[in-house]
Amino acid sequence: MTSPKHRKSKSDGTKLHWKRASPPHSIRLASVNVGSMSGRANEVVEVLERRGVVICCAQETRWKGYGAQWIVGKNKRYRIYWKGDESEKAKGGVGVLVAEEWESSVIDVRRVSGRLIVLKMKVGERVINVLSAYAPQAGLSRESKERFWGDTISVISDLSGTDTVVLAGDLNGHVGACADGYDDVHGGFGYGRRNLEGEYILESCVALNMVVCNSKFKKRLSHLITYSSGGTSSQIDYFLVSRKDWKFVRDVKVIPGEECISQHKLLVCDMSIRRDPVRKKVYMPKRKELVRNRVARPEGVSSHWDFLEGGLLAAADKVCGKTKGPPRNKISWWWNDAVDLAIREKRRLYKEHKKGGPREPYLAAKRKAKKEVYLAKKVIQDLVIDQVSDAENPNGIFNLARRIKEDGRDIVGERCVRKDDGTIAYVDKEIRDAWKVHYDRLLNVEFEWDREQLSTENPVLGPPPMIATDVVSSAINKMKDGKAAGCSGIVAEMIKAAGDDVALSMPSS
Which SUPFAM superfamilies does the UniProt entry name for this protein (predicted)? Predict the structure, then answer.
């Protein structure tokens, strides 16, 4: 019986290995009002990494404009997609941080405003829309609040009904501890007393057929309170999920005690989502070795091509080798032991201060940590400047500019396909069906042509004429370089580099 890990093998010796389809596993999403990303972005990423968060909705980033960039943490990077507030002071702003290993899953980014951003991701055969929202505060006008919720309802209503929708953010409202008439959307395990802004949240959930995930799990107070300042505590950060996808939510809770985000608390949501099995190619050199060591020339066109193909691939592999793909983590890692130790000490003293300890040691540790981060970053920045200024490397500045441009791209994963009806195909089956329809129409439509203009030729008796060597050489010389290889893996450069032996052997077959 064939092992389930070895499904099939190609004729060129390539064996396709399939990993077993893993059961649905838990991924962790998060939401937090960071207060400002300036000066604390790296520590925020370190918190997300340590807490196992792969997608985080951030509010009040206070960055102007919009864009995408990498933020370096202790051991990994996160990519942030942000949209700033249009005001001159840039008090608001929203963003979504995605772990490096999930970056290729992003298929679309829609920046609605400085209070709402939509990130569309493909996870397995499922499309997930992650919305980071920052609702107007209690002191702002009623018109601004109605405009925000109107835009939010409009954006979610335009999404496909089959997609998973997750809205997370600082919604600046109190939904209350009990359902009180909103049993369909409120689970009865909230915190505080409901206010007008909380009514907006619940009414929007009713209109969009969503549920407030925070209220569905019974937690102690420290895992419910999302904001603490000046002796007051409240629950104003929420996870809202479409009702049909509520079954995927495993837990929602607050993680208190993170020093770099002291007022708002980190709110996490664990969901069970199945990802695609990973397909990888494993090249089997044993078969190529057997082909290379054949003595007798094979008979027949197919056998001869197999023989020639194996020789060309083996020669190219031996002479040129194989690439290992793009290098990982092109940027220099500045998070060293001194930075790690200073931040750990600052975090420890912060917890002691919250338990009633003195404040001065914490403030001193905070200043020291900021200095260590500055010094570590300066070393790397000086190194980059030296590399760019090096006279022996005149292309250094262009390579740096190209890297910055690539880092600023929104979509780096697979592209989607527009179907004939104008909608976008995201999942693999829809993409394959869209291409099938396109090529069926392209290849099966007969163009107009005049049969009367065809010349009449006399039949030729006997075997077909032999293909001369000079005809083969001429055809090889006309082949264009730099073209992608097909299923065989053979490109024009391989055939040309083989010399006259290929041209001499082809006519005889």
Answer: DNase I-like
**For 286-313, what is each residue's pLDDT tens digit?**
434 433 444 345 556 677 677 777 777 7
Six-digit token pair at 9?
């093998």
Please state, rounded to an integer, the average pLDDT across all residues of the chain. 80
| Region of 71 on the Ramachandran plot (φ > 0 left; ψ -120 to 50 alpha; else beta) | beta
For the sheet containing 249-255, what is the strand order? 66-72, 77-83, 94-99, 55-59, 25-33, 266-273, 249-255
CB–CB of 98/91 below 8 Å?
no
Do residues 167 and 59 make contact, with C-beta atoms less than 8 angstroms apart?
no
Which residue, among 301, 299, 305, has the nearest Cα to 11 in the 3D structure?
305
Domain with CATH 3.60.10.10 in the chain: 25-273
The string of DSSP letters for 149-218 reads HHHHHHHHHHS-TTSEEEEEEE------SS-TT-TTT--S---S---HHHHHHHHHHHHHTEEEGGGGS-
Q: What is the CATH number of domain 25-273?
A: 3.60.10.10
CA-based max dimension of the chain: 105
- 376: which 2 tokens? 């570590």
pTM: 0.67
**Per the structure block, which two tokens stand in for 268?**
């996490």
